[in-house]
Design a protein that fits this description.
Helix content is 33%, strand content 28%. The chain has 236 residues and is α/β, with parallel strands linked by helices. A 6-stranded mixed sheet has the order 6-7-8-3-9-10, sandwiched between helices. Strands 2-1-4-5 form a 4-stranded antiparallel sheet, with helices on one face. It is globular, with a radius of gyration of 17 Å.
Length: 236
């Protein structure tokens, strides 16, 4: 894989919370337009890896390249400006802003100056939000909040979107809609890093996948290869 194709090029990444050595030498690459699934049981370092890539973990070492730039010591707002959108576990919407305000405050053109995900397209993708435009974030159901969180991320016109447990705790019909949208995002050429407890769905939507165990990569490769070996690491 040529370096010019890489949106994410992380090498020998370590991260700590205090004296706890959580990530231990992670290598991770994501090419332009590629979807990578990040799998592992709870507590194995998935969310820490996501937060480290985004600049939220201060105790870190190793090389983190984003869009050809050295972002090893970059702060979160610097990472976001490069074209990385984050849909966090817990949704992270603004509860005292309306649905419309949550969306519009995030709107900006992409790095190429084009707007592939304008306001109208987000509302078309999530019709439920168009019915709730004047509702405050705190007045929405969990599923509606997740739709809003994804819609807000898309309005930044990212080249890479990171989804951390985007379907957790949602009703089955909402989960199905979220996965449909994730499929549309990936098919549209946006690179994605997907973390979700439903490993079968993750593998169905990804080109490649990697499995973490105790802060180390124990399995990675094309989804077909990972599918054959993943069950033993996830205890399923």
């Amino acid at each position: 894989m040529a370096d010019a194709e890489l949106i994410v090029d992380a090498r020998a990444v370590h991260a700590w919370y205090g004296s706890s050595h959580v990530l231990q030498g992670i290598d991770l690459q994501i090419a332009r337009g590629q979807a990578l699934g990040l799998l592992g049981r709870n507590g194995m370092g998935k969310s820490t890896l996501v937060r480290t890539l985004l600049g939220h973990v201060s105790q870190r070492s190793g090389y983190i390249g984003l869009f050809g730039q050295d972002c090893s010591r970059a702060r979160p707002h610097e990472v976001a400006r490069l074209g990385v959108a984050y849909v966090p576990e817990g949704r992270g919407i603004f509860p005292n802003l309306t649905v419309r305000e949550n969306l519009v405050m995030a709107a900006r053109p992409g790095r190429d100056g084009r707007s592939h995900w304008p306001y109208e397209r987000v509302l078309h993708t999530f019709p439920r939000l168009s019915e709730r435009l004047r509702h405050l974030g705190a007045q929405l159901s969990g599923g509606e909040q997740q739709m809003l969180s994804i819609g807000r991320a898309l309005m930044t016109h990212p080249e890479l979107i990171i989804l951390d447990e985007a379907t957790e705790g949602l009703a089955p019909l909402v989960v199905a809609q979220i996965w449909r949208v994730i499929g549309e995002i990936c098919a549209g050429g946006i690179a994605a890093l997907i973390v979700d407890h439903d490993y079968r769905k993750v593998l169905a939507h990804c080109d490649r996948a990697m499995v973490l165990q105790k802060g180390q990569v124990v399995l990675q490769g094309p989804r077909g290869e990972v599918t054959r070996g993943v069950a033993g690491y996830l205890g399923v």
